[in-house]
Specification:
The structure is a single chain. This protein is mostly helical. Helix content is about 55%, strand content about 0%. Helix 2 crosses helix 3 and helix 2 crosses helix 4.
Length: about 140
C-alpha cells in the first residue's frame, strides 16, 4: 500500500497540529491493545493511526473527545441547582453557629457513619499541655 501522508488526512482534520495530536493519541491506544479498524499491512502504529483517520474508519471528533478525557486530571460533575443552593445555605447556617436540619435520607446516612467524640478547644489545649516530652537520647 502507498505511504500515507498528511495531505491524505488534512481534509479530515484541517489543522496539521491537531492531526499530529490525534494520530499520536490513536497510535498510543493501538500500542496499549485497542483493536485497529484497518489491515495493518506490516505498518507501524503511527502509520496505522494516520490510515484510520484518512479512511475515516474513526471519527476525528471521537478521537479528539477521547484525547481530552485521557488528559483530564479532575472531572467536574454537574450538580443540580437545587443541591448547589442547599449547600450554600448550609454553609451560611454553619457560619452563624446553627445546626443544619437533616433530611430523612441524610439522617439515615449519618447514623450509618462512624461518630467521633467532639472536643472543645479548652479540652484539647489541656490534653496537649498534659503530654510529657520524650526523654532526650544521644541517638536522636
Amino acid at each position: 500500500m502507498a505511504r500515507v501522508t498528511v495531505e491524505d488526512c488534512i481534509d479530515k482534520v484541517e489543522n496539521r497540529f491537531e492531526l499530529v495530536l490525534l494520530a499520536g493519541h490513536r497510535a498510543r491506544q493501538i500500542s496499549q491493545g485497542m483493536p485497529i479498524t484497518i489491515d495493518r499491512d506490516n505498518d507501524k502504529n503511527p502509520v496505522v493511526a494516520l490510515r484510520e483517520i484518512a479512511d475515516e474508519t474513526l471519527s476525528p471528533a471521537d478521537l479528539k473527545e477521547n484525547l481530552i478525557h485521557s488528559l483530564q486530571k479532575h472531572v467536574e460533575v454537574d450538580e443540580p441547582e437545587e443541591a448547589r443552593a442547599l449547600l450554600t445555605s448550609d454553609i451560611a447556617i454553619m457560619e452563624a453557629g446553627g445546626e443544619i436540619p437533616l433530611t430523612e435520607g441524610a439522617a439515615k446516612e449519618e447514623s450509618d457513619t462512624i461518630a467521633f467524640d467532639q472536643m472543645s478547644e479548652e479540652d484539647l489545649l489541656a490534653g496537649i499541655e498534659s503530654l510529657v516530652a520524650p526523654e532526650k537520647n544521644e541517638d536522636f
